[in-house]
Amino acid sequence: MRAVVPRGPVPVAAVEDLWDVRPDDLAAAGAACRRLPDRQPLSPALVTDLTSRARTARDWRGDVQEEDGHGSPSPRALLTASHARALRRIVEVHGWPGFRLVGVEGSLAALEIALLCGDGPFLRRLLRGIEVALREQDAVPVFGALLHDRACVLDGQHQWYGSQQWAGAEPGVLWTVEAPDLLAERRAGVGFASLEGAVFHDAAVRTAVA
Q: Would you call 31 exposed, middle or buried from its count of C-beta atoms within 10 A (0-12, 13-18, 19+)?
């Protein structure tokens, strides 16, 4: 199976549009969270803010235009930047917004916002916060897997868990994976389903290869 994809390193602005999280893997995050006991969040106001922002981001997800045709940022780009700033403010005060602070829905919303962020160093910072949250049972491993893969794509590195795919591809072409022979084991370790017959991006030949 072959599919034409961009060659070589992709500019960050393009990466944000052309590579996206696999919907099934994002759904796995929700499924993992909803198996946890219900918790009353400490900050209902932050839950409302995060879930509203995530819902707006979802509505605009298909708009990949970075400019409005007159050299100004598109509405989607402005919204994404606004959501990222809001998440930064929360992280500055609280660290990763985990289940205790914002409950399952708020934490999932924060994850969605983070996955649209085009700032690799910020995602690495969030990963460190999630490591702390995991030790406190305030997050689930799949959060770290999703953010790690997204950060790898933005940094032009191989992803580990196969959660980032060519946007709109059918079936999805995966961003290059580190040690593909270990992919199934790594995915199982964080609660992802296996990927049978996965197709991987090959930057050198502008195609994806099975």
A: exposed
Distance CA 54, CA 110 (A): 7
Q: ∠ CA 91-132-42 to the nearest 5 degrees?
A: 55
Query: pTM value?
Result: 0.85
> Which three-class secondary structure string do you get for 17-63?
HHEEECHHHHHHHHHHHHCCCCCCCCCHHHHHHHHHHHHHHHHCCCC
Sheet with 207-209: strands ordered across: 19-21, 164-166, 173-174, 199-202, 207-209
**Residue reference for tokens 């991006």:** 201
pLDDT class for 8, splitting at 50, 70, 90?
A: very low
Tokens of residue 68, six digits: 């409005």
Q: What is the pLDDT of residues 140-197, one digit of tens each?
A: 999 999 999 999 999 989 999 999 998 765 557 899 999 999 999 999 999 999 998 7
